Structures are given as structure tokens and as C-alpha cells.
Amino acid sequence: MTSRSDQGTPPTLAGFSVAITASRRAEEFSALLTRRGARVVSAAAISMVPLADDRGLLDATRSLIHTPPDVVIATTGIGFRGWIEAADEWGMADDLLAALGSARVISRGPKATGALRAAGLREEWSPASESSAEVLEYLTADDLADKRVAVQLHGATHSWDPNPGFLDGLTARGGRVVGVPVYRWEGPSDAAAFDALIDDIVHVRVDAVAFTSAPAVASTLLRASELGVRDRLVAAMRGPITAYSVGPVTSAPLDAASVPSVAPDRMRLGALARLMAEDLPAGAPDIAVAGHRLGVHASAAVVDGEVRDVSATGLAVLKALAATPGDVVSRQDLLDLLPAAGEDAHAVEVAVGRLRTALGAREIVGTVVKRGYRLAID
Predict the structure, then answer these.
(1) CB 3.0–4.6 Å: which of 51, 111, 218, 258 could bond 77 by disulfide?
(2) Per residue in 214-249, pLDDT tens?
(3) Which residues is 289 bridged to in the sheet?
(4) Closest Cα to residue 70, out of 151, 188, 7?
(5) Cα–Cα separations (whole angstroms), residue 264 to 122, 209, 270, 317
């Protein structure tokens, strides 16, 4: 199948600005979006504690080697691989795999399954949904009563539980749960860049924000609270900014904050990028104006598929005109968008003139004598 860009048409996300919070594979994800024409603002929301330095993981590993589990539940591929690598650094990998090999092994999804098999372990079962809830449905009280259950945990930030109810559900079925904190998250290493990204979201300088892990969502909300802008950040992500997540686990903290999110059917970066390339333009369709197609986005204007270099002032004027396409916006209302102009009404004419030039099609913005300006919609 030929893509739109292969046919000589503009990239799907031309003119759109996207904030991404990934710490892992950020460059790969950014490239997937940039290739589709998006402007990407990237800052890691979290940093990962090196596994070999994590005392909690070391203690859990020693405990499981000393008293092997009856059931092992692997939840993520990267987490399980990291656990084995850390055990290898401690000189415990063989002993750990021997202890785990005597247990019933449950995998939460294909990535975890791949990591298990690479370590020489075979899973008994894995849910098609990749959900912890289905794992709970599979394991009954008869399976778990008085059994030692090792659970490789998701990452966590502060006191936030990325998988609420799962461990409690295992315990309620009689299991003696040993949580294995395979990776633990902390705040970002580059706090200034992360704060700048939050500021972009709060001031709606981006059209979308994409999350690839639930800890990144939790860290974003927490940092916004520390900066005193959580309510504004949440309001922005409820609209006009669209929040995207890689899957339901990542969406959980957004759901808790009553922020709607959009996720692909498959929890993969490629699927998320494709979804955004389809969903963002559908939610902000071009306007037919004076024989042209005009796209008005958070930080850019697009005319007939070409991103135009419009100043912040010009973009503010254009957004006011595009809020109700075809309706007249008074000179006074536009003057209010130009705080540096004071009461100089001539500043509006100058701003509109520069906007027309920047758009490369002066006819897009029409003058309504003695009243103001409007988009000359078809």
C-alpha cells in the first residue's frame, strides 16, 4: 500500500505538535511521529533506578532462592529480562532460574512470554488480553491456597500503584504473595526540560500528549501538582489537547484523574503512532477558506498542506478567527489579543496584514468594513 507521502501529499501530522514523555525508546517514538510530519516536544517524565543497585530487588531475589515459589507471574518482558540480568551481576542467576523453574509460570502477555522463554522457562498460560484482570480470573483459590506466589511488579512512582487490586486479589485467593520490584521509577533526570514540557501542555502549545507508561502519567500529574498547575494541566488534557496512551495500564492514572484518553488496539509504539496519525487530523479537520485548505493547530498554521511560519501574535489572531469560521471578530476583540499594543487600533491592521503575508494567501482573511475581520470560508 502506498502512503500519502509516497503519493506526493503532505505528511499526515504536518502542523501538529506532540508532547511525548517516554524515557525508554523516546528517540524511536519521536522518529515515528516526525516521519509523519509532527513537531515533537520530548522530555522524560521518569528515570529508572539501576536494577543492580535496587536493594528491594536484591532482597526479594534472595528470598525466592531460599524459599522457591509455587507460582511465578511475569508481567513485562523488559522487567523480567532486567531481573535476570541483575541476578547475573550478583552471581545469582543460575540459582534464581532453578528456583523459578520449579514453579507454575504465568505470563501476562507476549513480551513477558518472550523473556521467559529466552531465560529457559516455559509459561503454563498467558491471557489474550494482556491484562492482569484476566490473570486473576484464571487463578482460582484452589490454585493459590497457601501457595507462595512471586509477582514481578510493574514500575511505580512514589505511592502510586500501577496495578491496583491485583496483589490484593491474589492474596484474597489464599496466595502468600512475594512482590518483586523489578524496576522502580523516580522523577526525571532533566527536571528543567520536563517542567518546560508541562508548561507547553498547560498553555496549550501542543495538540496532543502521548504517554507510553503509567508511571510517566503519574509523574506528570505529581510534578504539575508541585508546580501548582495540576488543575490547568488536567483541564488542558480534557480538551483541547488530546491525551494518548499505549494501552489500558498506561491509561489507568488518566482515568483516575477523569482525563479521557485514546489508545490503540495493540499496545505497541508503532500502533500508537499510526493511531495518532489518523485520529489527530480527524479531530481537527481543515477549514475550506477562499479556495484553500486551512489547518489551525496549537503552534502552527497549515495552508494547502504546507506548514506556514506564523508568529505567535498572528497565530492568536488566526485562532480567534477560526473559533467560529466565517463569523466576524471585532477589531476590539482582536486588539485584546495584542497586549503590547495598548489601545492602538492600528496594531490590529498591522497584525492582520502580517498574518495574511505569513499564510501566503491574503484572501484567507477577509475584511468586513467598520466591523472587523473574518475567515472568508467557501
Answers:
(1) 111
(2) 889 999 999 999 999 999 999 999 989 999 999 887
(3) 292, 377
(4) 151
(5) 29, 15, 9, 35
CATH 1.20.120.790 correct for 5-46+188-283: no
The yes/no answer on whether domain 287-375 falls in CATH 2.60.40.1930 is no
CA distance 61 to 142: 26
User: What is the pTM (predicted TM-score) of this model?
Assistant: 0.73
At 362, the amino acid letter reads R
pLDDT of residue 11: 63
Where in the chain are all domains bearing CATH 3.40.50.10090? 5-46+188-283, 51-185
Q: Degrees (nearest 5) of the Cα angle 271, 254, 277?
A: 30
Q: How far apart are CA 24 and CA 209, in angstroms?
A: 16
What CATH number belongs to 51-185?
A: 3.40.50.10090
Domain with CATH 1.10.10.10 in the chain: 287-375
User: 377 exposed, middle or buried (CB, 10 Å; 0-12, 13-18, 19+)?
Assistant: middle
77, pLDDT greater than 70 = yes
Task: Give all strands (DSSP E) within the chain, no chain letters.
Answer: 17-20, 39-42, 47-48, 71-74, 104-107, 148-152, 176-180, 185-186, 208-211, 242-245, 261-262, 287-289, 292-296, 301-303, 306-308, 329-330, 365-368, 372-375
Hunting for cell 490503540 — which residue is that?
264
Residue with cell 471578530: 329
For the CA atoms of 115, 119, 125, 130, the dihedral, rounded to the nearest 10 degrees, stands at -10
Residue 262 confidence (pLDDT): 96
pLDDT over 60 (residue 310):
yes
